[in-house]
Structures are given as C-alpha cells and as structure tokens.
Specification:
About 60% of the residues lie in helices and about 10% in strands. The chain is mainly alpha-helical. It has three domains: about 100 residues, no CATH class; about 110 residues, no CATH class; about 40 residues, no CATH class.
Length: about 260
C-alpha cells in the first residue's frame, strides 16, 4: 500500500507543473461554474444559481474525503465524478441538455450505474483487504454487493425525482408521448379486464387539445428507462470487477482507475 500523507492545497502553477489532472479538472470546472453562477445572479435566476452552488459543493466532496481519511481516489474516478456533476447539474439542468439532447439523461444514468458499482465494489474490497477483519468474501459475492449497491442508489434517486415532482412540481421524471394505453381502470365491469385503446393521435384535457400527437405518459417510461441503463452500467462494472478480483495478480490497469484504495499511515 501507499504511505498516507494528508493532501495539501496546491497552487495552479504547481498543478500544471506536476500535471495533476484531477486538481486541474477541479480548478477548471470550478471556474466555469463560478462564471455560470455570476451570470445566473445577474439575470436573477436564483434557482439556477442554487444549482451552481450545489455543484460547487459536490465538487469538493472527493477532495474532502481524501483530506480527512486515508482513502486514495484514483484521478480517473475523481475526474469522471467531477465531469458527471458538471454534465448533470450545469449542462443538463441550466443549459437544458436533458431536453435538447434526449440521450443526455440516458448516458448519465448509465455512467451513474457504473460509478455507483465502483464505489460499492471498493467498500467491500477495502474490507476484504484489511488486516482488521478475518473474513474474506468471494469475488462473486463482492460483485453481487457492488451490483446491488448501484441498483439501490438508482432506485433511491428515482424516489428523489418522484418526491421533487410530487412536492415541488419540478417534472424531473420526464414525460413520454405514447399512442397506446392499457388499463383495467377503463373496464366498466370492474372485472380486472385490461382495456386497450390504440392509435391515439390526439388528447384533450378540459376540452383543450394538448397538441402532442398522442397520450402523455407521466414519467413511468422514463423511470424504467433510467433504471434499465443504471442496470447496464452496474453490470458492465460488475463483470470487469469480477475479472479484476480473479486475476488480481495481473493487475487490470483500466478497472484500477475506478477503485479507491486505503493507504498506510
């Protein structure tokens, strides 16, 4: 293991000279977000200003973990986390990439599944390698825990989105236009018979045509899609993590870039 030394704040010139990619990315993204924050305050868009402040706070978490614990976060993992925060909070919300680019939300949920699995994997792997514990978990059990941890994070996030929609009316669970609906609620006999209405081309609410060209699904499809791509991301890391554990002596350089480790005092 590496010898632990409390990280010190570096000057920008030192970061460039040492080619510290994680610190450089942190400084660059923080500067960009600060510029966004100034613009939002000038335009009195305080909701987006809060989003900028939240992004800045989240940026600091990896550095705080390294500073106050003996956990070493690989630069690749830290950079990916920082870009993920920027892509979701700034580009997704403030720049409306979620609406402009339909794949944006899907891509981020896939990455989230991968990253959450990496974090869950590392927590169990750190315990496995610790001399303080006598038990050793099999590689299969470790990746099952990592996979389940990632899916749990994905489900909790969907709970959060639903809560924000229900309480604050934010529409985080995006709607989908569909052309067929099936429901037992449409059965006049109340006998649990599924009634299907197809070829829906227009829907009126209170006598007003919505102009969507179909029926509006309120978030169910978006939620299932998000959980599915989270599943894909978690599965990809779990497979790579399994081979990493079973062939640890060969050192898979790619997967190691996403696994935090504990360093010696």
């Amino acid at each position: 293991m590496k010898t632990w030394k409390r990280p010190q704040r570096k000057k920008l010139t030192t970061i460039i000279a040492e080619r510290d990619s994680a610190a450089f990315v942190h400084y660059a993204l923080r500067l960009i977000v600060l510029l966004f924050l100034i613009v939002q305050i000038i335009t009195q868009n305080y909701e987006n200003a809060f989003m900028c402040i939240l992004a800045l706070a989240l940026f600091a978490i990896p550095s705080l973990i390294e500073k106050n614990t003996r956990i070493d976060i690989p630069d690749t993992l830290e950079n990916t986390i920082l870009f993920f925060i920027f892509a979701s909070a700034i580009l997704g919300e403030i720049r409306s990439y979620y609406v402009t680019y339909p794949f944006w939300d899907t891509a981020l949920h896939t990455v989230n599944g991968f990253l959450a699995a990496a974090i869950g994997f590392s927590m169990v792997d750190i315990l496995n390698e610790s001399e303080r514990f006598t038990f050793r978990l099999s590689p299969l059990f470790v990746i099952i825990v990592a996979f389940c941890f990632s899916m749990t994070i994905g489900v909790i996030w969907e709970f959060f989105e639903f809560g924000m929609d229900w309480i604050f009316g934010m529409d985080m669970q995006k709607d989908t236009v569909i052309h067929t609906i099936r429901s037992v609620s449409l059965d006049p006999t109340n006998s649990q018979k599924v009634i299907t209405i197809g070829n829906i081309t227009e829907v009126a609410v209170n006598g007003q045509d919505l102009g969507l060209g179909g029926y509006l699904d309120i978030g169910l499809i978006d939620t299932m899609k998000d959980l599915f791509v989270n599943f894909i991301g978690a599965l990809i890391f779990s497979v790579l993590g399994y081979f990493y554990l079973t062939r640890r002596s060969k050192r898979n350089s790619f997967i190691e870039r996403f696994i935090p480790t504990v360093v010696d005092k």
